[in-house]
Protein 1
Amino acid sequence: VPIWFVRTGAAVGVLLYAGTGFATWMLGANFLDYDILDPESTHHAGQHLGILLVELGVLTTVFSVMVVIFYAFAGRAPDIPEEEW
């Protein structure tokens, strides 16, 4: 996975999570009050949509950060010179 893609994924995940909260706020409800996303629904479809969007944002962010940490450890140069192995 290219590093630019992983870094972008981390930022997009945070924006998706925060954007969902701010969207509910801008629509006139409390922060992360997902019912406003589908106010006509009697089955709380807005709750389902909001939770899925937030979980997708968390998934994207956590995946991207874990890959960045892996790249950071895998790309380190060894501390011991080759002659001393």
Protein 2
Amino acid sequence: MKYFYQQLFGFVSVVLLTIAACGILFYNVMSNNVYTQRSQQLQSYAKGLIATDMSDADIYKLGTILREENVSIAMFDENNAMTYPSSSIDTNSALTEDELNHLKNGAAINLKEVQMNFTGEAVDNLITVYYPIIKNGQYKGYVALASPMSRIQTEVRELRNSMFIAFGTAIIIGIMMSFVFANYQTRRINKLRKATHKISEGDFDVKLPVESRDEFDDLMKDFNNMARSLRESEKEVERQENVRRQFMMDVAHEMRTPLTTMNGLLDGLKYNMVPESRRGRSLELISSETQRLIRLVNENLDYEKIRSNQIVLVQHRFAGIGAIQTVVEQIRELAKVKNNTLRYECDTDFSVYADYDRFVQILVNITKNANQFTDNGEILVKAWNEGKKAIVEISDTGIGIDEREIKEIWERFYKADVSRKSTKYGESGLGLAIVKSLVDSHRGKISVKSEVGKGTTFRVVFPGESEL
């Protein structure tokens, strides 16, 4: 609620200061306007009196009429002597020499809140106008008109009271609107605060309503994006944890099988339970399982080095057809065992910018994987250049991979079909994980297209020197 009161105080302060400033300005303008209108009215009386050549009787009648409107009138000649109303003694006005000179120059004089009459006698506040009489270009005296300030002050007082009512109403409405607006903003902040609290408690499914009207909505939109990112991160952490657990189980399983085999054979040899004729074969099995364990450990170490960028790639451009021929020759005997046909299609000028040994390793692993899941089929290694890029496709007519499993094949120890696993090649399930890491290290791209029962195609793209 602290923010609510801060907002309310700020809004009310602005409203009060604005209304006070506008009120004072408006009051001064309107008060001056009332005085100006009264002065202009007195000047119009004076102009009318001068414009018509009135007799003393007419002036007397006009004076009587003006007195009913609380307007006093007096006339002075060029010698500053009062000629109307007539007096038994000589009477001069109370104007100073400078003011008289001002009149002689043809300019009127407006005096506000004068506390003496035309002749200098003390009276209540008056508003007085002195207007010069100019005939044929000659100064003939002046007319003086005065009106009590009480009437004007009454009008100003009525104006002030009306302003108090109007501005008082405006203040009340302003305070009410400030309360509503401050409460609205506070409720939005409270929503954000409650959502933040849920995030801190681990609830990443929170979502705030966004209307895209102002910066608060932008903030809520950013909050929703943050919550979504945290939710996705949590899912990724959970997925990685599952992968880690599965990895540990797979490592234990992969190691347990050869260790169990070796332990059984060693016990048989130790207690002379293995016939002499089979001792040589038992030793071969122990050696084979030992090599299998060594391969498993080395592949894990190799994978971790590649994944953490601890290997140094010696990249250069070389003729790719020789490397592809080497790979095909390495796998050809394995393909014959499973009655597979292995062939390649490659232009003689095909070239690759990569680390030669790692390039061969990538192709060997993918080709072995294709042979592992193909029986009585065909495996094709096809390579070509597109500009500086080198593209290699390895296709097979094997069992294929389900579309839902394609994203998982790059994980360590993942097997799309455990029942079809070879016992000698690819048994650790690390081949494709290493391939993916090596391709990433080359800043290349690898993709898979597969259809269950029809086969699989791996496509690897190696960028040129200028694209790195």
Protein 3
Amino acid sequence: MIEVYSMPEAFTPAECDLIIATTAKVPADEALLVGRQRDHNLRQAELVWLDDVDGMGWVMDRLIALVSKSNRDLFDFDLREFSESPQVARYQSSNGGHFAWHSDIGDGVAAAKRKLTLVLQLSKPDNYKGGDLEVMPSAHVVAANRAQGCVTVFPSFSLHHVTPVTSGVRHSLTVWAHGPAFR
């Protein structure tokens, strides 16, 4: 059975607040789909790529360790690299922030090699309403833990979405671990 791996308190609230504050100083890009496609019916968010932000190298070090732990504990996938920068997403209620059901494996060079998706909950859960990350690892839906600092890891082929944010702003960080194609 395909499962979702959860790591509460993987980052402290202070670390999450620092990531939000630091990335807020960098101009954000409109979130696009794989292949640089734009469709606000499918996705409405703003992104900052962590590689573009000074002083955030420690975040990637932690993410690598967390992906390694989840892979050892549960998935046992053949992971070889992190081909893409982590992205910090901002989903705002003012513009209907959301991301419709999708999987993270796509036609792009890097997207085709995605094997594990890691999502870090940066916001305090009472800072927004809606904005739930829900993953469908098999025939059921699993709601990700909304606690600030919690990490959720799942196979990149799993369907998942972010429900519309109806109040406030949700911040999250996503990174992918890459490897040879699934067999």
Protein 4
Amino acid sequence: MHSSVSLLTSFLILLLSFVIVLIIISMPVYFASKMISKRSSLTRAIIASIGGLTIYFILRVITSPLPFVFSFVLAFLGLLFIFKITFETSWIGALGIAFLSLVFVIIVTTAVIFILISLGLIAPHLARLIPFFPL
């Protein structure tokens, strides 16, 4: 009985962790979509994040034999298509959501890195290894 309770507890912790991570990665999409689309909600942002990542991954795998730039552009268009459908916006609106999401991620990541450095949890020389960190 002990192992089944432990297994159930582990599964519930895993499920809860998955939901928390899903909400966290959907927040930039949610905030960006709030600025662009009238049809924005956290649920739609989560759906768009799951759908967008899935279609991006599938298209990148399928088109991987092609040159990287072509494969990347097709996969990115797939991601934009998911944003367009999910938030009922135009292609330009979908591009705006993708761009603003990236901006939000960069701002939050930079802020977290500054906080971690100021708390002494990351050495300043290690922060240079992190992409787009302005040191």
